[in-house]
Amino acid sequence: MKSAAVPTVFIIDDDRGMRQAIHDLVESVGLRAESFATGEAFLGTRHTGRPSCLVLDVRLPQMSGLDFQRQLAETGMQIPIIFVTAHGDIPMSVRALKSGAVEFLTKPFRDQDLLDAIQQALGRDRIAQERQAEIHDLQERYHALTAREREVMTLVVSGKLNKQIASEIGASEATVKVHRGHVMQKMQAGSVVDLVRMADKLKLPPRK
Amino acid sequence: MANEDVQKMLAELSKDLLESKARLEEAQRVAHVGHWEWDLETNVVVWSDETYRIFGLNPQEHPMDLATVRSMVHPEDREPLYQGVDQDLVAGERPNAEFRIVRPSGEVRTVSSLTSERWSSLPGDTKRDASGRPYKLFGTIQDITERKRAEEALKQSQFYLSEGQRLAHMGSWAFNDSGHYWSEELYRIYGLDPQNGAPTVEQYLALIHPQDRASMAETINRMQEEHCGFDQIERIIRPDGQLRYVRAVAVPVVEQGVFKGFIGTTMDVTEQELLTQELRREQAYLAEAQSLTHTGSWACNLLTREIFHSSDENARLYGFDPSQGAIPFDRFYNAILAEDEVALRARLENAIREGADYDVGFRIRRTDGALRFLRGIGHHNPSQEIGEYVGITMDITERKRAEEEREKLRQLEADLAHINRVNMMGELAAALAHEIRQPIAASVTSANACLRWLARDPPDLERARAAAARIEQDGNRAADVISRLRSFYKKGTPPEREMVDIKEIVREMAALLRKEAVQHSIKIHSELDENVPNVLADRVQLQQVFMNLMLNAIEAMKDTGGKLTISSRSTPQGQVTVSIGDTGVGLPAENTERIFDAFHTTKPQGTGMGLAITRSIVEAHGGRVWGTANQDAGATFHFTLPAKAEADA
Q1: Which residues, other chains included, contact B256 with Cβ-Cβ below 8 Å and sequence gap of 6+?
Q2: CB atoms < 10 A from the CB of A11, how many?
Q3: Do B433 and A15 make contact, defined as CB atoms within 8 angstroms?
Q4: Is A24 within 8 Å of chain B by CB?
Q5: Which of B352, B459, B537, B607 lies at a C-alpha separation of 20 to 30 Å from B312?
Q6: What's the per-residue H, E or C state across A154-187?
């Protein structure tokens, strides 16, 4: 059953019965499930690149689910979160959703509500992963550029003409044209517009 | 001269002589003076008639001889008298003497005997012996008894006067044309030497204390110019440096409209003055203490309404001005608030009848309109006179107000505690909800998973069974939470059963809630059957049942007032039924059974636990509780408890 394409649902709940029940429900719809009693246990595992999401109990023994959500964001781990709670209130759910949670469910919940939320979360994660993969690809291309080529690329995406670039870097216009050709080729850009979009995705700082 | 003439002349002479003798006799009788002649040679004594009368003898009956005279002299005076006479005669002096005689009647008289310068009654009859001693003595004897007595009396009264002055530290003085007289005691008072005589005005003023000197000088000045008397107390400084207080009184002497001078007395009043000052100081301290503590003192006969003493503060407590003089009893009495008067009168009359002390609180309307709380403590006078009391009145208004404030605060605290309890109940309910919700949510999710395993094609029975097993587990877990809670509640207070008298608990609770009831104008009335048996119960829990039901009843009547009735009776089934009824708002029209449910409440601040706890306690004792609506107004709650025989079961 298990394959690299199967997304994983991570579950963190200190209540064993609840944890097992969600785990089982997730598996009953053919998804992969991994469950943990605490947030630390979850952080201790290595995550694969496949789409995943986190079903998180708001009330955990050491820290609240909301604090754990903030901690994850601070360490740069991006994973869609579905909160479940036995005693949620409106301000708490608003706070969770504002911080990027996919859904906030009150126990006991309808199974379909949880499964829908899981699907939504996995879809969101899949898109995020694709974007991450694209950026990863672009970064590899960018790393292949020489220092001079990166300099030229920065100036091109900020809209400078070849002549301006030449005077700025102290080279001939012909030399600039050669560098520019290498950049377009290595970055696999079809046009300057393409190259600008790439620079944006790479979050390159614009040259003044 | 012819014989006839001689005869005639003799007859006239004889007549003259007789007349002259008669006059002499009369003169002697009037003056109580007699005469005597004593022939020293023959020892013959001749007495005039008056002399006989002085000796209490009849002149006709008693020819006199010396031995008789001697025997009549008072025995105590006899020897000295005769010795004195002999000595005088030997010395050639006239023997004069004062001595007492004893009349035949036993009466004692004092007489003065004087011997004539001529020694003899007859002119030329101056026969003397060789030593010049006369042969005859002539003299007078005078009865001086009355004079002596007057002298004695004067001496006595003078002694008494000076003794009196000495004892009273009072001196007397006179000031007139003939001079300035000071009594002995007056010298002593001023510490002056009588030898130096009475002081002049200047000397006198020098003795006065410097602070009183000017006013004394002024007084003396006015006294001399206007001839008016005075009565004043001044300080003097004696020559030995001692400071004394003297009270001087002077009155002008006027005889037939003519001013003659002054007489006066001066009295050393140092001790009295110091005592008076001390007394005044003590009184001032006492008055100050009374004013500071708002406590007045009094003594009066409550029966006859006579006031013997009422301190200034006592008057001020009632708003009267003490400087206006004595305040009649009725003015004090009429200040008492009409609402308190009946009860107060009853207390006082009771105390008076029993001759007992009392301690009462009452309210008055002061003359300025202010309402004050007073406390009166009366101590039955040891004189045992009926109705006579000494005591104090205290203004306890501030204390009363403080008490009321404290009471309000206490009420507030109670309210807060109540709200806290409500909050705690809320938290308890939330915790409970979470504890139970968790396993229920797990079993619901597992059931969902189970259904999905079964819905597969083919169904995954293995996984479905595992899910079903978890459903059972979680179901049991939820049940455990509940039973854990129940056992916790039960463990909390292990019941301590004892024989309890319901009447006693009702009395305790009624006493405890009386204040609360009075505040809301609610009368607590009990109709307890004397024959109701004791029940076996946990006393504290039973108190709680009564407290809950009685508080509910008070709550139901708190805006309207009314009557809270507690009754008890035994049933033919051997149970005890207690009913607690009110005349308040009554039961809700619907959901009458639900009032015993936990969290069911109709009050804004109610927990909804009171009746639920009541039911749980009563049922734990094997009893039953229910509520009924009264016909006219309000509701009655009843509960039964098994009598002791069944309670053990």
Answers
A1: none
A2: 25
A3: no
A4: yes
A5: B352
A6: HHHHCCCCHHHHHHHHCCCHHHHHHHHHHHHHHC
Contact A27 B440 (CB under 8 A): no
The A residues from 150 to 169 touching B (CB cutoff 8 Å) are none
b/e per residue, B521-538, with b = 16+ CB within 10 A? ebebeeebeeebebbbbb
Determine the 3-state secondary structure of B248 from DSSP: strand
Query: What order do you get walking across the sheet with B230-237 strand by strand?
Result: B179-182, B170-176, B258-268, B243-255, B230-237
Residue A48 confidence (pLDDT): 64
**Residue B165, beta-bridge partner list:** none
Among the partner-chain residues A22, A59, A87, the one whose CB lies closest to the CB of B445 is A22
* Strand ordering across the sheet containing B575-581: B522-528, B562-570, B575-581, B635-642, B624-629
Beta bridge partners of B139: B36, B115
Q: What are the C-alpha distances in Å from B531 to residues B121, B568, B569?
A: 130, 10, 8
Strand pairing partners for B297? B392
CB contact under 8 A, A109 and B445: yes
Task: Read off the pLDDT of residues B303-318 as tens digits, 9 standing for 90 and up.
Answer: 888 888 899 999 999 9
Q: What is the rounded distance in angstroms from the CA atom of residue B474 to the CA atom of residue B461?
A: 20
Choose among B392, B389, B378: nearest CA to B307.
B389
Looking at the complex, report in whole angstroms how far the Cα of residue B496 sits from the nearest Cα belonging to chain A. 39
Q: Inspect the interface and report whether the beta carbons of B438 and A87 lie closer than 8 Å.
A: no
- Answer yes or no: is pLDDT of B519 > 60: yes
**Which chain A positions have a beta carbon within 8 Å of B453's beta carbon?**
28
Which pair of tokens denotes residue B535?
């029940």
**Interchain pair A28, B452: CB under 8 A:** yes
Cβ–Cβ gap B445/A21 under 8 Å: yes
Cα-Cα-Cα-Cα dihedral sign, residues A60, A62, A64, A65: negative
Q: Which residue has the tokens 């020559």?
A: B239
Go through B33-46 and write b for each residue having 16 or more CB atoms within 10 A of its CB, e for each that does not.
Answer: bbbbbbeeeeeebe
Average the pLDDT over each of A196-205, B356-365, B388-397 and give the range with the smallest value.
A196-205
Distance, CA of B314 to CA of B294 (rounded, Å): 8
**In sequence order, what DSSP letters do the residues of A15-40 get, joined into one string?**
-HHHHHHHHHHHHHTT-EEEEESSHH
The pLDDT score that the predictor gives to residue A12 is 93
Q: In what order do the strands lie in the sheet with B358-365?
A: B306-310, B295-301, B388-395, B371-380, B358-365
B212: left (phi over 0), alpha (psi -120 to 50) or beta: alpha
Interface of B with A in 465-524 (CB under 8 A): 466-467, 470, 473-474, 477
Which chain B residues are Cβ-neighbours of A29 within 8 angstroms? 452
User: What does the alpha-carbon distance between residue A185 and residue A179 come to, in Å, rounded to a whole number?
Assistant: 10
Q: Distance (Å) from the C-alpha of residue A25 to the closest C-alpha of chain B?
A: 4
The token pair at A47 is: 């995550």
Contact assignment for B449 to A108 by CB distance below 8 Å? no
pLDDT digits (tens, 9 = 90+) for A166-200: 998 888 999 999 999 999 999 998 898 998 989 88
- pTM flag (> 0.80): no
> If you average pLDDT over every residue of chain B, what do you get?
83
Contact B582, B567 (CB under 8 A): no
Question: pLDDT: is B414 or A6 the higher one?
Answer: A6
